[in-house]
Design brief:
The complex is a heterotrimer of chains A (about 325), B (about 325) and C (about 350). With about 325 residues, chain A is mostly helical. Chain A has helices spanning about 25-35, 35-60, 60-65, 90-130, 130-145, 150-160, 175-205, 205-215, 220-230, 230-255, 285-310; strands at about 165-170, 170-175. The longest helix of chain A has about 35 residues, at about 90-130. With about 325 residues, chain B is an alpha/beta fold. Chain B has 11 helices and 14 strands. Chain B is globular, with a radius of gyration of 21 Å. The two termini of chain B are about 35 Å apart. Chain C is flat, with a radius of gyration of 25 Å. With about 350 residues, chain C is mainly alpha-helical. Classes of the chains: A mainly alpha (about 325), B alpha/beta (about 325), C mainly alpha (about 350). Chains in contact: A-B, A-C, B-C.
Chain lengths: ~325, ~325, ~350
């Protein structure tokens, strides 16, 4: 018997031998997802973007991306530099490749952090209720009441400049990458916490939870092995859309100069100062901006499709 | 008696991503002035969809009325414009739905919802309409009606809301009332009250009534004729007494046998119908009841039986004579 | 209803305190305002220390918070560093309306904010108006014409619109309407500031300069709202009471605009109400790009100079607005929805 809250589709009446057997919820979800052409399109574009950012590194070594030739500064797109060159003569195409790597990784890492925090807070608040719930929800509410961009700016200042450079895989990354990942994670967990808490509040009342408790299952096991797997759907949707939000957040804060610091490139900080070159060198901001748009768009398509696949009755925003 | 509505071979389908739902598969019936016709069948047999099709209330991207005619007088309802249908609905044909809790608009007052039809169809002014609304509420048995026009639906109980629905439906004196399981969602005691109310008003207004239900028990004191539906087909139609005393379709037989009776032997189990209703996503081939029918013969699997007369006005759609067990 | 309002207000107050504490703590490590003060380098250590004591920066964090909250005119501070507190404080604290003085410009915080606030408000209110009117029109229309070509186009554009980073929209629109149009000899829109200094700050100037920033801010929200309104309307249109209304033979116009819209407006009001206070933040990014002298830019400038009083002032204002608007929205919703207004 299904334990999730999904209603059984009306057309799947009990079958007789002539008909196909009924589908499991997972199979149903996959079929609905496949029908959602936009979501597939989004998934494909996303894969292409990852190939671009990580596969492109095989074509253009990082040294090429950092290679400055001031005699070529601010040249428009040409055969040699398809995206043109920037203010100190670096190839914009190569920089978008390496910048893309950072932007995408930041997105994924930040979502991991915010999911961890959000699930933990939501699960504890929803499961235990009472004082813990009140306390956690007060904190959540307080943080929700401060618009994200302000929180990000303040936190960037708070953590700024403290973390040294990282040396990983033979490459050097500015410590600000870690800072950005952490602060995005710290400012976005609230939405997921509320969702998870709501799920826990409703699932907690189900009989299988009562049964688990009656057989002496520990609270830890009930939370993580019984209730959480049943609420995985909204978590997946939220995490997917969260990546888009994280990439945008990183772009905004880097654009303002408070995010990832040079020389590490991200799509966002490539746009910093692009104002001044609005007329003279639109390729400086156009390509990174376009890449961000494509990434966020495909994630939104994907997330929308996922949301639809898991629960066709949900109201999309 | 003049014939009010004649439906001929109505077919309605739904296009959904999984395929096509064959909801109504050639339904024909008629109803005359002042008559009460009961439509009986289980959930999903197409009774509501048939009526909604006639009134053109189905959303037409998924729904599609594939063929058939619905003659109201000499006009085919299925071919009228939306404007013309709007003038007809609520005015000449009214419909009452199953769930009173969700069928009333929660943000508009009862008074507003009552007077709307009066204003739109009868052109009444605000005050006249309000007065008439009070009369209507009194007629359906709402106490202290004069002060209740400004109330909102959530302030009423389920039974009261259904009375309001009935008042709304009857306010323009329609010739035909279609009641789609109006008592299914109500308490048993309230059910009886609503049935009595409809009977009283029907007699007062000399109105025809199509009463849809899955409960054979309600039918007896209410209708003159009964129509039994299964999987989008009409399988039997007869005068009430004829149906109960001399059922001619295996499905009707099974339904009647399944009814708990006071005089049944206590040690026998309740009879149920084995098997399950067919999957409506499959285009019907052969009699829809065949898989579950104890009288089924080869022919039943491949040819859809038409409604044939079995004596007087009694018709049944079956290749077998259930009184003898032999093919017709 | 009255009790409900009071209850909500009372709940809001501890929330605001909580927020102020969180923000204050974050602020504490923002950097040293004294080090970047006024351009004039404070080289002597004793001057540096004196300045710090004057500004109360030598006290522990909870004391600083206390002074921020309720002032220090009821106590004395030790300004000359001899260990004896002799100078009476001059601050009355936030609770008495004194947000302190900017560490950078030495002007009262409220004045500093007040100079920029109207500029942001103009921009934000205009944007919100455009957003609401536009998305209502588009959202309702799409819901009514579901599955039509126009609906699909609108949906596609909505997705794109709300996936765009705001600076991309801003830069694109600046490029197209400001640069390209100018090149092509078409009438073009200004891209910098609030008015042309040569023409003076007239209403026409401001309006003309507002077009691009408002456009940039509106597109994203407009896209999101249209989709939301569309799906809300669709959900409402699928309800039983709409079926009843149609069965009564009511004309389509009345079914949609009275029966459906009234119900759909409830969640829409909630979303709009909760969104409004975020306007105060001003699109920080947009103001930067268009050099619009508003609160967003103010915030950025003063954060970079670690000017705690101004920054706290702006943040608390926004947080208070958010909380107040949440309460207001709840109240309006409760009033609009008869099920809540007339509790049995």
């Amino acid at each position: 018997m299904q334990t999730s809250s999904q209603p059984t589709p009306v057309m799947l009446l009990p079958a007789d031998e002539l008909e196909t057997p009924p589908l499991s919820p997972g199979q149903l979800a996959w079929r609905r997802f496949r029908r959602h052409k936009m979501a597939l399109f989004g998934a494909v574009v996303l894969i292409l973007l990852f190939v671009y950012a990580f596969g492109g590194a095989l074509i253009f070594p990082e040294s090429y991306a950092n290679y400055t030739d001031t005699s070529l500064r601010l040249s428009p797109p040409s055969a040699k530099h398809p995206f043109g060159t920037d203010t100190i003569g670096r190839d914009v195409l190569a920089r978008t490749i390496y910048g893309g790597q950072i932007s995408l990784i930041i997105g994924l890492l930040a979502v991991s952090i915010e999911s961890l925090i959000g699930i933990l807070v939501g699960a504890l608040a929803g499961y235990y209720g009472g004082f813990l719930d009140s306390l956690l929800m007060r904190i959540t509410e307080a943080m929700l009441n401060i618009p994200e961009i302000f929180l990000l700016i303040v936190m960037a200042k708070f953590f700024g400049g403290r973390i040294p450079e990282i040396h990983l895989l033979g490459r050097v990354f500015s410590g600000s990458v870690i800072v950005i990942v952490v602060i995005i994670g710290l400012t976005s967990w609230m939405y997921l916490a509320r969702i998870v808490r709501a799920e826990f509040l409703s699932i907690k009342e189900n009989e299988f939870v009562l049964a688990a408790r009656a057989t002496g299952t520990s609270n830890f096991e009930i939370i993580f092995r019984h209730i959480l797997p049943n609420s995985i759907a909204p978590i997946i949707v939220s995490a997917t859309l969260g990546v888009a939000n994280a990439i945008l957040a990183e772009a905004y804060i880097s654009f303002l100069g408070l995010g990832v610091q040079p020389p590490t490139a991200t799509w966002g900080n490539m746009l910093d100062g692009a104002n001044n070159y609005l007329e003279s060198a639109p390729w400086l901001w156009f390509f990174p901006g376009l890449l961000i748009l494509l990434t966020v768009l495909s994630i939104n398509f994907l997330g929308d499709g996922l949301r639809d696949a898991f629960d066709p009755h949900s109201r999309a925003v | 008696m003049t014939m009010l509505l004649q439906t001929i071979d109505l077919k309605t389908r739904f296009r959904i991503p999984e395929g096509t739902i064959y909801a109504v598969n050639g339904v024909s019936f008629h109803i005359s002035e002042g008559e009460t016709l009961a439509v009986v069948g289980e959930s999903g047999c197409g009774k509501s969809v048939t009526m909604m099709s006639i009134l053109r209330l189905l959303p037409t991207p998924p729904a599609e009325i594939v063929s058939g005619r619905a003659l109201w007088g000499n006009r085919d309802l299925l071919r009228l414009s939306e404007n013309e249908m709007e003038q007809l609905r609520g005015r000449e044909i009214a419909m009452v739905f199953q769930d009173p809790m969700t069928s009333l608009n929660p943000v508009l007052t009862i008074g507003r919802q009552l007077t709307e039809s009066l204003r739109v169809h009868l052109g009444m002014g605000k005050e006249d309409a309000a007065q008439r609304a009070v009369e209507l509420l009194e007629q359906v048995g709402i106490p202290d009606a004069a002060h209740r026009l400004g109330d909102y639906p959530h302030q009423y109980s389920g039974g009261m809301r259904q009375r309001v629905m009935i008042a709304m439906a009857l306010c323009c004196h329609p010739s035909l009332l279609i009641a789609d399981e109006p008592t299914t969602a109500l308490d048993v005691t309230i059910q009886a009250q609503i049935v009595e109310l409809v009977k009283k008003l029907r007699d007062q207004l000399h109105m025809a009534v199509i009463w849809i239900t899955h409960d054979l028990g309600v039918v007896a004191g209410l209708a003159q004729r009964v129509m039994v539906m299964y999987a989008g087909f009409v399988v039997e139609e007869a005068l009430v007494d004829d149906l109960y005393e001399d059922p001619r379709h295996p499905y009707t037989l099974a339904l009647l046998a399944a009814l708990p009776r006071v005089d049944r032997r206590r040690d026998r189990r309740l009879k149920s119908i084995p098997g399950a209703p067919p999957n409506l996503l499959v285009e019907p081939r052969g009699c829809p009841f065949a898989p579950r029918c104890e009288f089924a013969i080869e022919r039943c699997r491949f040819e859809i039986p038409p409604l044939q007369p079995v004596g007087g006005t009694h018709t049944a759609a079956c290749w077998v004579d259930v009184t003898t067990g032999a093919p017709r | 209803m009255g009790r409900y309002i009071i209850k909500r207000l009372l709940q809001g107050i501890p929330l605001l305190f909580f927020i102020s504490i969180i923000l204050f703590v974050l602020m504490m490590n923002m950097g040293d305002p004294v080090a970047t003060m006024g351009g004039r380098r404070v080289t002597r250590a004793s001057d540096y220390e004196r300045l710090r004591r004057q500004l109360g920066l030598d006290k522990p964090i909870y004391t600083q918070y206390l002074y921020w909250l309720i002032g220090n005119d009821w106590t004395k501070t030790d300004v000359d560093g001899d260990g004896i507190a002799e100078t009476p404080g001059t601050r009355r604290g936030v609770l008495r309306g004194d947000f302190g003085v900017s560490l950078v410009t030495r002007k009262p915080v409220l004045q500093v904010i007040g100079e920029r606030l109207p500029n942001t408000l103009i921009l934000m209110l205009a944007s919100e108006f455009v957003i609401i009117v536009g998305s209502l029109l588009v959202g309702v229309y799409s819901a009514l014409r579901q599955y039509s070509v126009l609906d699909h186009i609108v949906t596609a554009f909505s997705f794109i619109g709300y996936s765009m980073p705001i600076f991309f929209i801003a830069l694109l629109s600046m490029y197209v309407f400001g640069v390209l149009f100018k090149r092509w000899g078409l009438p073009y829109l200004p891209t910098v500031g609030m008015f042309d200094p040569q023409a003076g700050k007239t209403a026409a100037q401001v309006l003309w300069h507002m077009v691009l920033p408002v456009l940039s801010i509106s597109i994203i929200s407009f896209a999101a709202y249209s989709r939301y309104i569309r799906s809300t309307m669709l959900e409402v249109l699928g309800q039983d009471y709409i079926r009843t209304a149609r069965a009564k033979g009511l004309p389509r116009r009345e079914v949609v605009y009275v029966h459906a819209l009234k119900n759909a407006s409830l969640p829409i009001v909630t979303v709009v109400g909760l969104d409004l206070p975020l306007l105060l933040g001003g699109a920080v990014v947009t103001e930067r790009i268009f050099a619009w002298p508003g609160m967003g830019r103010l915030f950025l400038d003063h954060v970079s100079r670690s000017d705690l009083p101004v920054v706290m002032g702006i943040l608390m204002m926004i947080a208070t607005a958010v909380v107040v608007f949440q309460i207001l929205t709840d109240i309006v919703y409760a009033w609009l929805d008869p099920r809540i207004r007339y509790e049995k």
